[in-house]
Structures are given as C-alpha cells and as structure tokens.
Design goal:
It is a single chain. By secondary structure, the protein is mostly beta strands. The protein folds into three domains: 134 residues, Immunoglobulin-like, CATH 2.60.40.10; 119 residues, Immunoglobulin-like; 101 residues, Immunoglobulin-like (Sandwich), CATH 2.60.40. The protein contains two helices and 27 strands. The chain is rod-shaped, with a radius of gyration of 48 Å.
Length: 432
Amino acid sequence: MKSTHQETNSRAVKKRCIKTATSPAAAFHFIAAILIITALLTPTASAGVVSGNTHLEVYVSEITPNPARPGEDLLIKINIENTGNDPAENVKIGIEELDPFIFKYSTSEVYGSGTNTERIFQIEQIRQRAKVELNFHFRVDERATSGVRQLEFTIADGDGVSFSKRIPIRVEGNPDIVLMGTVITPANGGNASVDALIPGQAFYLRTTVKNSGNGNAKNVRVILDFNGSSPIIPLEDNVQFFESLKAGSSENLSFKLLLGSNAEVQPYKIPLRITASNEAGDFQINKAQEIGVNVLNQAKINIASLKFDPQMPVKGQKVSMILKLENVGEGEARFVKASLDGLEGSGSTEAFLGRLKKDDDAPAVFTFIPEKAGDQEVTLLVEYEDDFGKHQLSEDLTFSVDRQEGSIIPLVLGAALILAAAVFYMKKKGKL
C-alpha cells in the first residue's frame, strides 16, 4: 500500500541572511562548538539509518498488553522519525512475521482512516524533523509458550539504505494442570493395575500431573480432599508438592491409601484438589478432580477336609476320594471345578461343583482304582470365577495305597515253609 500523505512540520521556519566577517580561527571554534552541542543534545536512537541529510530512527512507544497473551491480540506502536535536514523519500517499511506473532493489519494517519493489510508498504515522504506513528496489530498464536520472543521491522529509504529493528516482546501464557494415566495398584501386588478393590486392602493411587497449558506453573499441589465419612484412609502424606512445572512438562506421583474393612460393596470416588499459579502469581488454579474405584467382594476356596471310602485305598480296588471345598471369602464363587493331576490309576479325575456362596461348602468326589501300592502323590487343581475374574489354586496331596487283600497270606505261609525246611535240614546234619 502506498500513501500520498506527507508529514508537515509543526513550525514554520523563516530564513534570514546575516553577513558577518569572521576570521578562520573563529569560524573553526564556532563549528566545533556547534558539533559538540549537537552531539550532547541528540537523543540516542534505538535503531537508525543515515542517508545523505536524512536520518531515520525508530522508537517503540507502546506494547499492549505487556506481557502478550497466547490467543489474544497484540498492539505495537512505533514512531519513525526523520531527524535529518532533508525529507526522507519513498520510505519502505517491512514486517518480518516471526512465530508466534501473526500480522493482522496496521493503521496510521499517513494513510487516513483505513487499514493496511500489507506486510511491506511505502510512505512517500517523511519530512525533515518530523515523525510518523504506525500502529501494528498482531494475533499471538494460541500455542505460544511463555518466554521472550521478537518481532523484526525493516526500514529502507529511497536511496536503498536500510536497517532492521528487533523488538523483544515477553509472552506469558497460563498454565493448565491436569492428571493423566491414573491407575490403582495393590500395595503388595507390584505395579499391575486393578479395576476393583476388596475391603481391608491397602493400595496406591498412581497418576501423572501435567502442565498442558502454555504458561509455566509454580507451587503446584495435588491434595487428597477426603471428608470424614469416606472409608478410604491416607496412609502417608495427603499432599504432593512441585515447586515449578514448565509448560508441556509432567511429573509422576502416588498416594498410599487403605480401604477400610467396613467398606460396602459399591463404587467410591477419591476426591483430589489441584492448586497452582502462573509465574507472575496473578493467575490462580484451583480445581477438583475425582478418581473412581470399585469395591467388590472376592471369593476364596479352601480344602476343608479329605477322606477316602473305603478308609484305606487298596491296590486294584475301587476307592472314592472325597474332598470338601469351602468358600471362605466374602464373594460368590462361580463355575467351581476340581481335578486330580498325576494319579496312577483309572477312573474319574474331574468334579464340577458349580456355585459356592460365602461360607458354602460342597464335596468334590473322585472315584478311581489305584494301580500302584505305597505312597501316591497327586496335585489337586481348583478353578473358579468371581467378580474379579478367573482364579486357580493347586495343592499337593499324598496318600498311601495298600497291597491287594489275600495276597499277603500265601507269601507269609511260603516264607514259613521255607524257613521250617531249612531248620529241619540243619538239625539232620547235626549243625543245630
């Protein structure tokens, strides 16, 4: 965009010609004095260019807001002043769009009441000892993070002499603290997460606190915010503190808790409160978040008793092993079944019991014919399901098997006859 408006000097200057006769020495001292006074009175420019008798300087007069905020508008006012003795012609102004600033438009009296949307434009003339004010409007990228950023302007006159001016701008975003990846793990069960707890169980609440905002946070606290009626009790400190948390960064934390033995079977909520502020302390975070946990009763199967019918198993004869299984847990056991592994014999090695409620018991009966006398070792496997899923327990059992009935007498008699014959033979030889 080009503007045909020219800056006017606010004061008229009348020319007067004075004829004086001066010596060369006096003239030299006069010129030297003028140069010294000019050097002392000329203000220091933030950036400038000298081209012939023009001298362009750039000053920043306003940055609003300061600091700039991500996702909001930004106004920068600059003055371009010609401190030289001649007008500056065809002054080109360019804006280097640097992240995170997005140029929208500029306004100025030099181009009237309208707006300029070009990033590179020209002012036809800036008169000597005059200045123009330019208002630049930007948008700050909403993803910008806190820190000092820069905008760059380039100024060039009609003679091609140019310079650049970098303006530092502080950007300050606001933090946003969130909890991520929250899991419940038993206190004695490693790091494996669970979906439910049982009354009387100690556990860890593990989570990650993250600053998902675009500003740094300080004095971050995550607080267990229980009331007196909750059956969940903190076993350690109920506050986790982080002095600072930069934008995009995260920290892991955990709380150790105990679910009271009187907790009812129902879902519970673990209330957490998160507090923090931005670095300047003028933006506060105070939010609540709840973590749900389900409480269920768990079944537990034990062997209540073991017996045989008949009482003493005999090799080659049918016998029944009767195992009484009992549910000593708080929850219901479903699809209960038992099996024997490693049995040396033929017969049934599986038994299905079905459903066992709390404190219920039922027999698992295995009928088989032992094929070997002596001690027998078998493994009992019990499988069942409850509200927590599938379970399996194993128990090693040892029992004795006698030899077949009636086989022992002939052996004893045979041994006695052999012994009697030997005694008789020895007497006959006179050796006894």
